[in-house]
Automatic annotation (TrEMBL):
Residues 5-63 form the HTH lysR-type domain. This is HTH-type transcriptional regulator CynR. It comes from Falsiruegeria litorea R37. InterPro entries: LysR_HTH_N, LysR_subst-bd, WH-like_DNA-bd_sf, WH_DNA-bd_sf. GO terms for cellular component: protein-DNA complex. Keywords: DNA-binding, Transcription, Transcription regulation. Belongs to the LysR transcriptional regulatory family. The gene is cynR_4. One of its GO terms (molecular function) is DNA-binding transcription factor activity.
């Protein structure tokens, strides 16, 4: 059965019972007498019984039901105060479970290391992760299935909060024997006539292709993959170049072949990597600590 009264109504009821009059309770709580009187009347109506006998000359006299319920109401208010205290203690301590969502492209490069270093710094925290697309991240945050997510600042909805931690310039991935591999930097005009291996993830693929359309060009897409590791292997084996905003920590593909990474320059929008949350989530010390940990570790 849903609650039919509020803690505020209980507070006014207990104060009136303790003081013996509406006027005295009004002074104690610094609340107007009509507000207290209305709250008590609403509480009596919801409970279906009188709590006081109103005596014009003598103030309030509690009924037998009122005395019984006043004692219980005081315990409820004490428990509510304790719950508030505990919530404050938990929110100010870096502890407990932390459920992380992450884009697939981040999962194999940075997330495991961030989790490990965060748990080493805060041993009372236990993290878990799940790899998702951008749309899946939005839905999971709204359903409270995850606490926060590592993602890009692409197509973000207004009901979620993005906390940027690192700017990510684009790189061109190339096999060492590719004709462009020895350049110090490249533009989309340099790339336009060569086969491209597109990292074909939702939203990300549109972002990479926009580099070309902004210049009136179309990339020659020869291969598509949703897996960062597969993309690197295809590039290393000569199936084309690719573009990504996160440079791997080593220059070897998953099948052991070498790769080269050349900065892509021009009028390009850099992506921001960050932590996405529901509004107000960083009021929790654990969540706030993770955001700051990401900033520190990813910008070392």
């Amino acid at each position: 059965m849903p609650l039919r009264f509020t803690l505020r109504q209980l507070e006014y009821f207990v104060a009136a019972a303790d003081c013996g009059s509406i006027a005295a309770a009004s002074q104690k709580l610094n609340v107007s007498s009509p507000s207290i009187s209305t709250a008590i009347s609403q509480l009596e109506r919801e409970l279906g019984m009188p709590l006081f006998v109103r005596q014009r000359a003598q103030g309030l006299k509690m009924t037998e039901a009122g005395r019984t319920l006043a004692a219980q109401a005081l315990r409820v208010l004490d428990e509510a105060t304790e719950m508030t205290r505990l919530a404050g203690a938990v929110s100010s301590t870096v502890q407990g479970p932390l459920r992380l969502g992450c884009l697939v492209s981040f999962a194999q490069i940075v997330v495991s290391g961030l989790r490990r270093s965060f748990e080493d710094e805060y041993p009372a925290v236990r993290t878990s992760q799940v790899e998702m697309t951008q749309a899946e991240i939005f839905a999971a945050l709204r359903r409270a299935e995850i606490d926060m997510a590592l993602t890009y600042d692409l197509n973000l909805p207004p009901d979620l909060e993005f906390h940027g931690v690192k700017n990510l310039p684009p790189y061109v991935f190339l096999a060492p024997e590719h004709p462009l591999a020895d350049r110090e930097s490249l533009t989309v005009h340099d790339l336009a006539t060569y086969p491209m291996v597109l990292l074909d993830l939702p939203i990300s693929s549109e972002y990479f292709q926009s580099f070309f359309t902004r210049e009136g060009l179309r990339p020659v897409i020869s291969e598509r993959t949703r897996d960062m590791a597969v993309m690197r292997s295809l590039v290393a084996n000569g199936y084309g170049y690719s573009i990504a905003n996160f440079r791997p920590l080593n220059d070897v593909s998953p099948d052991g072949k070498p790769l080269k990474f050349v900065p892509l320059v021009g009028e390009l929008r850099y992506l921001a990597m960050g932590v996405l949350t529901v509004p107000g989530a960083t009021s929790s010390s654990t969540n706030a600590a993770f955001v700051e940990h990401c900033r520190a570790k990813l910008n070392e």
